[in-house]
Amino acid sequence: MSARDDLRDMLEGVPDERLDDVRTYLEHLREADAAWIAWQERYGGAGSDERVRAAVAEADADPRSSMPHETVVAWLRSWGTDHQLPPPHKR
């Protein structure tokens, strides 16, 4: 059974009054898919995954000190609250 057949079977179970919601969802899905394809064409598609992995490996191998992104974000989000965190330390 194909994905198209699966979708057809699922749509048959949707009450008529909900079909406009389903249509809207599918239109958004089509637009998101088109945007994803455009992004892949512009930025290199699946090859970009390998470039990201290489960049992360290069950053991890860098001997200079750094701070985890999540730690910095938590610190910044704590600004102006009653429980402000101390500045993060380099690792």
Provide structural commentary.
The chain has 91 residues and is mainly α. The protein has a domain of 62 residues. The protein contains four helices and no strands. The mean pLDDT is 85.
Question: Mean pLDDT, nearest integer?
Answer: 85
Note the gap between the termini: 53 Å
Helix fraction bin: 55-70%
What is the strand content? Answer: under 5%
How many helices in DSSP terms? 4
**Poorly predicted regions:** none
Give the oligomeric state of the chains in this entry, treating copies of one chain as homo and distinct chains as hetero.
single chain
- Give me the secondary-structure category: mainly alpha
Largest sheet: none
Q: H/E series, N to C?
A: HHHH
Which helices and strands, and how do they pair?
Layout: H1 3-12, H2 19-43, H3 46-61, H4 69-78
Main attributes of the structure:
mainly alpha; 4 helices
Quick overview:
With 91 residues, the protein is an all-alpha fold.
